[in-house]
Amino acid sequence: MRHIRDVFNFFAIFLAALVLGTGNFAYATEFFINTKDGIGVADKFGIIEYRLGFPYSEFDMLLRLAPGDYINLKFSGGYDFRESSYSFKVGPLFRIGNFELDIPFSLDTKYMETDTAMEVGRMYIGLSPSYFIKDAGVKFQVNAYYSALYLYYDPAFNVNIPTFRTDDIFRSKLDFNVRYLGDGFSIGLGYVTSLRWLSYRSFFITGDNSVYFDARFAITF
To answer: In the beta sheet, which residues pair with residue 198?
Structure first.
């Protein structure tokens, strides 16, 4: 039943985005394939940008806070159909020439009710710098997230309680990627991992290591 509900939600969001996408009932203009985030379509209209795919879909809104597009406030909301989990982000985005710096505060969570107390979400602070080399058409980006605060579901009161936690569970994520932007297409390669600092050994260990490929193509209907 959960998978049927997720598929229904996906198509409902997909159809709504197609209607709102360009104001004339046109289809999205970009198709993407990502070995980490799945496949789907993406487009942008005004301050709204959306990416509809499976298993992950996301909507972004960018508000300009200063003339010249140097300081912005970015809001994001996403849903993972495979994990039935939600993601919410908000934070400033700075742009200076070919350099961008995104500092998102995010919450990853899922709705559940169980008979035992358990973790149902994490809150992260992130740092995401990127640099675009126009002559080469290459963009470099690093995404780093750290969490010491999580949501703890208490079945006795049926509430999620924010709780600090700094134990040995992986609490950091790191993502490197490089992208080539061509005429009407782009291809990228990245590496993502979870990190934990071992204080008694004074170095990092990694987990959930994976390399991913990303390709995007402009399409029209």
So the answer is: 203
